[in-house]
Write a structure and sequence with these properties.
The complex is a heterodimer of chains A (303) and B (49).
Chain A: E1 6-7, E2 10-11, H1 16-22, H2 25-41, H3 48-72, H4 74-79, H5 95-116, H6 119-140, H7 147-167, H8 172-195, H9 197-203, H10 208-211, H11 214-237, H12 243-264, H13 275-300
Antiparallel strand pairs in A: 1-2
Helix pairs in contact in A: 1-3, 2-3, 2-7, 2-13, 3-5, 3-6, 3-7, 5-6, 6-7, 7-8, 8-11, 8-13, 11-12, 12-13
Chain B: H1 12-48
Classes of the chains: A mainly alpha (303), B mainly alpha (49).
Chain lengths: 303, 49
């Protein structure tokens, strides 16, 4: 514990900044952006207040998932350098507060979605929170190296929820956007896992590089990158988007595959700085942002 | 002989600072939600009118 929670008999109230940090704001930014893109790419117009409220509900739902994830993994986080400074392992917050905050935020996000949007979007939001907390965090993550492959579905929900919030129904394009994030997750997380492998090993989390080794992980990154590239181009090939999205997907995915080839075909020695892996990880984030931006641009300003 | 560890002295100023900052934030958030719910209601009335 880096800092005491109590002073004698009296517990200090949690600082709001620590509660905010529980929501994983950086992850939330990607969730908000992809959800907004799903909503903006949907046919028809949504009232701006209702659109804002739906996106806010998705953001709060993602924040609740992050808080419940940190509540459950406080012990594991304390063992990893990358996460040891989080509010719970650092001792700036008690677990009970984190649990109450997470459950309260989840319930409120569902209420807000139901009030502002429709029951279909609310159901999807509830499913994504439950999937992330129970299926990914509690069940898959500590048990199998396929954790982020299946768990990736939780992060893939936002564009689908955004679309359903706008239209009330599911269509092929948001399903393909769901599939795109689902296929993007393994190369993105395994690139990270390669350069923080020792952290995961120390915490006993069976990430792919820890269980199957570096060579197998690198090969799988490459395979997933190729499948993901096909998935990214599919909306254009199926006539669901125009050439603006199509060419953006072709160029960005080709670069993604090239960076994955660099990672997938190399071997590392002691003291390697893991630059190609770090480059792929950073690029993968930009890739998703630009590609989803292109979906919206293609819908509003087609070529 | 080993001495019992002494509890840290209670920092009342820090306690009050955190309490105040959380109360202020909660007030702003509740105010914001009241306004948001007002506009959601207006928007829904426009849609279903």
């Amino acid at each position: 514990m880096a800092q005491s929670l109590t002073h004698g008999e009296t517990a200090l109230p949690a600082d709001w900044r620590d509660l905010f940090a529980l929501t994983k704001p950086r992850v939330m930014s990607l969730v908000v952006f992809t959800a907004l893109c799903g909503l903006l790419a949907a046919p028809g117009a949504v009232h701006p207040v209702l659109a804002f409220s739906s996106i806010l509900a998705i953001a709060l739902g993602a924040g609740a998932s992050g808080a419940l994830n940190q509540w459950y993994e406080a012990g594991l986080d304390a063992k990893m350098k990358r996460t040891a400074g989080r509010p719970l392992p650092a001792g700036r917050l008690d677990r009970q507060t984190a649990l109450q905050f997470g459950v309260g935020l989840a319930a409120f996000s569902l209420f807000l979605m139901l009030f502002a949007s429709n029951w279909q979007a609310t159901l999807l939001l509830a499913a994504s929170i439950l999937f992330y907390v129970f299926v990914y965090t509690m069940w898959l993550k500590p048990r199998t190296p396929q954790n982020i492959v299946i768990g990736g579905a939780a992060g893939a929900f936002p564009p689908l929820i955004g679309w359903v919030a706008a239209t009330g129904s599911i269509a092929p394009l948001p399903v393909l956007l769901f599939l795109l994030i689902f296929l993007w997750t393994p190369p993105h997380f395994w690139a990270l896992a390669l350069f923080v492998r020792s952290d995961y090993a120390a915490a006993g989390i069976p990430m792919m590089p820890v269980v199957a080794g570096e060579k197998s992980t690198r090969r799988q990154i490459l395979v997933y990158a190729v499948v993901m590239a096909i998935g990214a181009i599919a909306p254009w090939a199926l006539g669901l988007t125009g050439p603006l999205y199509g060419w953006t997907a072709v160029i960005l995915s080709a670069l993604f595959v090239l960076l994955s080839i660099q990672v997938g075909t190399r071997t590392t020695g002691e003291g390697d700085l893991m630059q190609p892996e770090k480059r792929l990880f950073a690029y993968s984030i930009a890739y998703l942002f630009i590609l989803f931006g292109a979906v919206v641009a293609d819908h509003w300003w087609p070529l | 002989m080993t001495e019992e560890p002494q509890p840290e002295p209670f920092d009342e100023a820090e306690y009050r600072r955190r309490q105040r900052s959380r109360a202020n934030l909660m007030a702003w958030m509740l105010g914001g939600l009241a306004i948001l719910f007002f506009f959601i209601t207006i928007a829904k009335m426009q849609i279903f009118a």
